[in-house]
Amino acid sequence: MIAFVLWDCWFKYPLVPMGIWKDRNFTLCLCILMLGFMAFVPGNFFAALFFQRVWHMSALEVAVHLLPMAIMGIIVNIVAGLILHRVSNKLIMLVAKLSYTSSFLLIAFNKTDSSYWSFYFPSFILLVMGADLEFNVANMYVMSSMPPSQQSVAGGIFQTVAKLCTTLGFGITTAVFSSVQRRPRLASYWDPTTQPYTATFWFSVACSVAGLMLVPFLTLGTQGGKEKGISVATSESGAAEDNVQVAEEKKAEAEATVAQALPTVG
């Protein structure tokens, strides 16, 4: 990976232009996304594992308990499509990171005898809200930060960062889980069975807070609506000009036809 970066810095026609990282919003969006995915995917995994090993649920029961995330995800994505071009994306990102942090704080305080409806259900609602809002804002900016001819490169950067950070998050949380499982050292509030899972959730809280601290440095406004409006207006203006030109050409042809049909005087 280091060799790839060095090569693209030196090569005249790089696959990934290194100058793009000088865009502060581009870099911040990817860093916030990175910290979010380091928390989101491992958090889901260990929540499902907690249901199976601690609450002794079957695979079908686990799927049913995770179902609110899918339903909320559909709703949030619809809402995101309606508000991205109307509401400040910095504010949307702030709401996303606050949702992330609140979500992992809730399940971090969960215990073996806690109720699903008291901790996990609201946590899943907030978790999906944070993940989808964050993803939409970051994806929109990353894709629009490069010209159309290089948007496939922007998409590749976006997906690569997301996948690498998910892998990194799994590696760290697995190490944390194994360490605490061997030597439970958390406060007596959590029983030894719950502590390994709780430790991974606290790691997710830390990632969420770190991402939250980056949000004030963003300078994002709305995205999508204004540019679309300009392009539509431009296309309509161009179409109107074409129609006028066609009408003038037809008028000239008609006048020429009439002139030929008239008898020549003299």
TrEMBL record:
Location comes to: Membrane
List the transmembrane segments: 26-51, 63-84, 91-109, 115-135, 156-180, 200-220
Please provide, in alphabetical order, the Gene Ontology terms of the cellular component aspect for this entry: membrane
Judging by the UniProt lineage, the source's domain of life is Eukaryota
Question: Which GO MF term does the entry hold, naming one?
Answer: transmembrane transporter activity
> What Pfam families does this protein's entry cite?
MFS_1 (PF07690)
Keywords of this protein's UniProt record, alphabetized? Answer: Membrane, Transmembrane, Transmembrane helix
Carries keyword Glycoprotein?
Answer: no
**Membrane topology label:** Multi-pass membrane protein
Q: Quick check: keyword Transferase in the entry?
A: no
Q: What is this protein called?
A: Major facilitator superfamily (MFS) profile domain-containing protein
Species of provenance:
Friedmanniomyces simplex
